[in-house]
Design goal:
With 332 residues, this protein is of the alpha/beta class. The protein is built from 15 helices and 11 strands.
Length: 332
């Protein structure tokens, strides 16, 4: 991923903010990572949930959406089209009933000069592709739904956190920490994007969308007249990676080999550090004190599983090749 898109927010004390967990954003992030080859930092055992639920032809179905040289998806195909409202089932029904003519017309508008070659199979057989795409999303979501339900308390906590910061006029202290991939510079938010551009928030709502997938989750849409939305990893997501951690059921935790070997927190650290991040970001996302994170990261570094690098005032963590190998081995 190269380049950044800039969202100019204007005076931060005048920005209207809401938090809207949306199943479509989480689903799109999961499919992008597990089937589309676009990393979102999804842990291996969640990738397996997605891949086991999807039909064998799934990678070919979603490949047009996540081609490495093009990041634009026609609006009518995104499960986030109804943001911030709507449920997953309604969106699946909409996609299944979508007219091929509507899809082709939107593609003609979106790709004015020429249709990228990865979209040609969709142009050739739009009805068949739409049926396969809608069915794939429905199957994956049905399998992942129990995990989504476990995240409900994290969504409530995040809404309270953002709401409190907005009321206190502290939005500038919240936005830089929602994702290690986002940067706040002055009153502009910079987000990684292949088709880099500059956008003005203006008088639109800024909708923050916590996502249940991986620490590298990143997506956004700035083209609506009423709002812009930004998807980012829900804080505390590491609590869900151990299986039953969110429900407090020890039997669920005991089924995860990495947790059994490394312990719950160290397993969460190893999984989170697939995407480089600072110590502060890791502590925030795992809901753990900085001192506790530092202790466990030191132990993992001594074992050759983590690297720590100082960059200015921050210490950045990343998993080593040995750490990657251990996570992969114990996530089979």
């Amino acid at each position: 991923m190269h380049g950044f898109t800039e969202l100019r927010l204007g005076p931060l004390d005048q920005v209207r903010v809401s938090v809207a967990p949306h199943p479509g954003a989480t689903l799109l992030s999961l499919v992008a990572d597990a089937l589309g080859g676009r990393s979102q930092g999804v842990p291996a055992h969640w990738q397996r949930i997605v891949r086991s639920a999807a039909p064998r032809a799934a990678p070919g179905v979603v490949s047009p959406l996540f081609a490495p040289d093009h990041s634009i998806i026609p609006d009518c195909l995104t499960p986030t089209a109804c943001m911030p409202d709507g449920d997953a089932t309604t969106q699946f029904d909409y996609l299944a009933d979508l007219s091929p003519d509507t899809l082709l017309a939107e593609m003609e508008t979106e790709f004015a000069q020429s249709v990228p070659r990865q979209w040609q199979p969709v142009v050739d057989r739009p009805r068949d592709w739409l049926q396969a795409y809608a069915g794939l999303l429905a199957e994956v979501w049905q399998e992942f739904l129990p995990v989504w339900k476990q995240a409900d308390r994290l969504f409530h906590r995040e809404a309270e956190r953002i709401g409190s910061a907005t009321v206190r006029g502290c939005l500038d202290s919240v936005l830089p920490g929602i994702s290690p991939r986002f940067k706040l510079r002055g009153t502009s938010l910079h987000l990684p994007d292949q088709q880099a551009g500059t956008f003005e928030l203006g008088d639109r709502w800024l909708v923050l969308v916590p996502i249940v997938s991986g620490m590298g989750a990143s997506m956004f849409a700035f083209d609506r007249p009423d709002l812009v939305w930004i998807g980012y990893p829900v804080p505390g997501i590491g609590q869900l990676w151990d299986g039953g951690a969110a429900t407090g059921q020890p039997a669920e935790i005991s089924r995860d080999p990495l947790t059994l070997i490394a312990g719950r927190l160290r397993a969460a650290i190893l999984r989170a550090s697939a995407t480089p991040m600072t110590m502060g970001e890791l502590a925030s996302h795992l809901r753990c004190s900085p001192a506790n994170i530092t202790y466990h990261c030191t132990q993992l570094q001594d074992a050759g599983l983590l690297d720590r690098e100082r960059r200015g005032r921050h210490v950045v963590l990343r998993r080593t090749e040995r750490g990657h190998a251990l996570v992969e081995l114990l996530s089979e």
